[in-house]
Structure formats: C-alpha cells, structure tokens
Specification:
The chain has about 180 residues and is an all-alpha fold. It has one domain. The protein has 4 helices and no strands. It is rod-shaped, with a radius of gyration of 28 Å.
Length: about 180
Amino acid sequence: MPNTVRPFAAATESISLFQHLTRKTSEGLAQLLSLNVQTAQSVLNAQTQHWNQLLKVQRLDELASLQAGLVQPLTHQASHYGQELYQIANNLGQEWNSQSQTPLAEVQTQWAKVQGNLNTVLKNMPMAAQTLTASMKNSLASANQAMGALQQVVSQASDAAQANVLAVAAQASQPNAA
C-alpha cells in the first residue's frame, strides 16, 4: 500500500504547520508583552520625572510651561506604541494568512484514497475475519471524525486569529488618527 505514505506525510506537514503558527503566535505575544512592559516603564519614568519637576516648581508660569510640556511626550509615546502594536499585529496576520493557504484539500483527497484502499482490502477479507473488519471500519470512522474535527478546529483558529489581528490592528491605528 504505497498510497498510505502520502496522507500521513500531509498530516505531518499539517502538524508542522500548526507548530510553526503556534511558535509565531507565541513570538508575537512575547513581542506584545515586551512592548507593553517597555511602554509602561517609559510612562512611569516620564511621570516620575514630571512629578519631581512639579515638586520643584516655585512660580505659576513654571507650572504652566511644565504642564504644557507634558502633553507632547505622552502623545509621542502613544503614537509610537500604536505604530509598534500595528507592526506586531500586521506581521502576525501576514504569517497566519500566508500559512493558512496550505492544501488541506490535498490531505482530504489522499485520506480518501487511503480509505478506499482499506475498504477494498476489507471487502476481500475472508468471512472469518469479520471481527477484524468491523474493528478496522470503526477505526476508519473514528479517524474520519478526528480529521473533520481537526479541520474544523484549524478553520476556527485561523478565523479567530485573523479576526483578532484585524481588531488589534484597528485599535492600533486609532492613536495615529487622533
């Protein structure tokens, strides 16, 4: 049965793809976490400096200029954060979109051929092997259900990831527009 090798190779490719996308998503989340930590540190440092300067103010005109000078760095930080967030979300979305075009139909076609070959073999088995035949048919039915469930999960995960990336990208673009 040389035809059985290819469906399992395709399944291996699908698992490898899933691992690749999981790794890329984890890297994207790590970048997002790092960006959030860096932004929080930067804002806290800026606020600490600002409060220290506020404590040293002795005249009202110094206070007014100090408060006016606070807005520009915060605006710049928000803009930078939005751009970085958009870049992370965009890269992750591109990775998912490029990889989701994998040939799941090819896996299904090869699996159907394997099933056809196994059904032919099972039909030609002697009557004494009916228990084995029934067991093989049950195994095939279970494998079909698992394959369908896997395809549904992959499809749902791809759709959810794409929707999340688009939502993050939309939120990231809002600070730039403001």
